[in-house]
Amino acid sequence: MTYLRYSDDVETLEDDEQESIDGIIKGMTQESEVVEKREGHAVRASHAKSTACVLGEMTVADDLPPELAQGLFANGGTFPVAVRFAQGPGEHLGDRVSTHRGMAIKVFGVEGEKLPGHDAPTQDFVFASGPTFPAGTAAGFLSQAKKIGATTPMPEGVKSAASSIARNINKVLNAVAGGPSPTLDFYGHPYSHPLDDYYFSQCPVRYGDYVAKLGTFPSSTYQDALDDWQLDPHQDEDGFRHAAIEYFNEHDAVFDLRVQLWADAETQPIEDASVEWPAQASQYRTVATIRLPRQAAYSPERVRYFDEVMTFRPAQSLAAHRPLGGVMRARLQVYQALSDFRHRENGVAAANTASIEEIPA
Q: How far apart are CA 307 and CA 313, in angstroms?
């Protein structure tokens, strides 16, 4: 198969893109202010409620074919990783409000040219459930942020009802249309086990000489056994966290890290993150394995460090894996601004963690 090559002109900026980005920052900061007033503490503007905070290793496969042996994955080897699993909303809600989920990965011991402003030997990958981002562009991101901001002051019961409606419609679509709507899944994710989910970059990144989307896929028999697991949110409003803690008390979690290379500029757009790249154009292919061993997945000191101190951002990246597209260009600024707000409000110094040894046990 022939894959398209990366070049500096693969991106096309939107008209008034910076205006959209400024609007996202303003709106999401206001949303964070509302949550801070209610909770008495500033939290992440998305993925605020952590599910598991764990350490492990990522092993890059030996002898990858040339198109896959790029950037961080150019040579076989093993890297320490820190991984934070979390629920989607930018506030602490009961698990009745089951929306999209996040899996943020920080890889340590990474050498090579970094993006401007990133000076630690690390590579961050920020993934979420669902192969696409509902807002495909920076302008769409702004529109979505406004809608979420409008719902932030609403009672939790209203958010639970909206999540339930989205989830139930998606069940019907899955049965009669052959697949769920990624947008509805964003607002109403199934009550499935967080360690049995697929997680995706949703947006493209540079992949050395190529371009790719990335994803993680559960790959242990113990995770396979979770396929029929369902949370009863009426019994446990923190059930996803408790399920993850229980799992890590007993078992390792293993994920294949896969990449889907850019092969068709028409069906695999760079500038519209709402479009799923079809498998007919190129398949996801495994480049590494992430192994998260059995451990205490929610120890107080480590959780505090993950939630309050450590940052996960697309900007903390090798130049070889530079984020691409309007949504990612927005995230480069938005994540920084919201992180600055959160740490400033809480009086906590943010850490661009350079070594896994800095993370509490």
A: 13
- CA-to-CA distance for 51 and 240, rounded, in angstroms? 6
- Compute the distance between CA of residue 201 and CA of residue 220 in angstroms, rounded to an integer: 21
Q: Hey, is 203 helix, strand or coil?
A: coil
For residue 43, give the DSSP letter.
-
Domain ranges of the chain: 16-347
Q: What is the pLDDT of residue 177?
A: 66
Pick the CATH number of 16-347 from 2.40.50.180, 2.30.30.100, 2.40.180.10, 2.160.10.10: 2.40.180.10
- CA–centroid distance for 347 within its chain: 26
What residues does 123 pair with on adjacent strands?
107
Q: In whole angstroms, give the CA distance from residue 325 to residue 297.
A: 34
Q: How high is the pLDDT of residue 178? A: 67
* CB contact at 8 A, 105 and 46: no
Tell me the one-letter amino acid at 87. Answer: Q
Q: Name every residue whose Cβ is closer than 8 Å to that of residue 3 and which is 6 or more positions away in sequence.
A: 67, 210, 261, 262, 263, 282
At 242 the three-state DSSP class reads helix
Measured distance CA(297)–CA(249) in Å, rounded:
8
**Helix (H, G, I), strand (E, B), or coil: what is residue 318?**
strand
- The sign of the torsion formed by the CA atoms of 17, 20, 26, 28 equals negative
Q: At what angle do helices 138-151 and 156-176 cross, to 10 degrees?
A: 130
Q: How far apart are CA 2 and CA 225, in angstroms?
A: 37
Helix (H) or strand (E) holding 146: helix 138-151
Cα dihedral 69, 73, 76, 79, rounded to 10, equals 180
Would you state the pLDDT for residue 239? 97
Instruction: Give the up-direction half-sphere exposure of residue 50: CA atoms within 13 A in the CB hemisphere.
Output: 21
DSSP for 209-231, written as a single string: TEEEEEEEEE-SHHHHTTTT---
Q: Mean pLDDT of residues grouped by 10 in the chain (361 residues)?
A: 95 96 97 97 97 98 97 98 97 94 98 96 97 94 90 90 89 73 87 97 98 98 97 93 98 98 97 96 97 98 97 97 98 97 96 95 86
Both tokens of residue 140? 């769409």
